[in-house]
Amino acid sequence: MGFSSAAIYVLLGMCALMKGSHGLLARYEAETGIKPVYTLLRVNMSNNYTVPIYRLNDYYTVRLCLDKDRNVTVTNIGYSNHEGSDNISVSYDNYTEIGYFQTEEDYSTEHMWSIMRNSSQVGSKTELRQGPHELKITLVDQHDDHGIELDFIELTVDDTDGSFDEVSFWCGSLFPPPM
Ligand SMILES: *[C@@H]1O[C@H](CO)[C@@H](O)[C@H](O)[C@H]1NC(C)=O
Ligand SMILES: *[C@@H]1O[C@H](CO)[C@@H](O)[C@H](O)[C@H]1NC(C)=O
Ligand SMILES: *[C@@H]1O[C@H](CO)[C@@H](O)[C@H](O)[C@H]1NC(C)=O
Ligand SMILES: *[C@@H]1O[C@H](CO)[C@@H](O)[C@H](O)[C@H]1NC(C)=O
Ligand SMILES: *[C@@H]1O[C@H](CO)[C@@H](O)[C@H](O)[C@H]1NC(C)=O
Ligand SMILES: *[C@@H]1O[C@H](CO)[C@@H](O)[C@H](O)[C@H]1NC(C)=O
Ligand SMILES: [Ca+2]
Ligand SMILES: [Ca+2]
């Protein structure tokens, strides 16, 4: 019918717009990965697990394998925080900082490690060269001694010719969490 085809055109238009202006969303659960990581069971968090970054200067690293030069934006980092606020630095290779965010302070309940929070975009769009890279998320300052728990990472990757492959972008490391 006329209505449904119009609706489909609107949807296609929205997809094209999203793709053109923002690129594709690539999502990585912190608890997945080739290297064994220390995970915590948090049933209310994304994919049921988080990874603690509790001590000052502790960091979490995810490898990126770029098939060609691409613009990448850290659009969101999912985390939970207990009590005091923390300063989280986000950097690429060799500690080239792209930005940082302050975690939200919350003293309200005893279940704060199970409250999902979003950083929103960190830093600006960065052109990454073809080849391997590392994205680091580091606890650079904290109000108490408990840092954060990292839930997931969302990057937006420009893909002008439709060649983007998410599995190879994460260097083939999209595995289920260790149990
Ligand atoms: C998880 O969410 C459910 C439903 O909102 C809630 O009843 C439960 O207390 C939460 N668990 C934790 C550990 O926060
Ligand atoms: C999370 O755990 C619940 C049970 O606690 C299970 O039903 C659900 O399938 C799990 N989700 C994932 C993504 O593993
Ligand atoms: C990245 O974005 C900049 C600014 O929008 C653009 O000039 C550049 O060509 C882009 N690089 C790649 C590899 O697409
Ligand atoms: C957070 O850390 C960055 C450096 O990583 C620093 O430039 C910034 O001033 C810090 N912000 C606060 C509020 O401590
Ligand atoms: C880090 O810096 C060294 C020395 O400048 C350079 O050889 C190396 O390629 C850099 N590593 C990355 C992943 O950019
Ligand atoms: C946080 O981000 C995730 C992933 O984009 C989204 O599913 C969730 O609704 C967001 N939560 C809030 C409170 O904005
Ligand atoms: Ca904290
Ligand atoms: Ca998770």
UniProtKB/TrEMBL annotation:
Keywords assigned: Signal
Name this polypeptide is given: Secreted protein
Domain of life of the native organism: Eukaryota
Signal peptide: 1-23
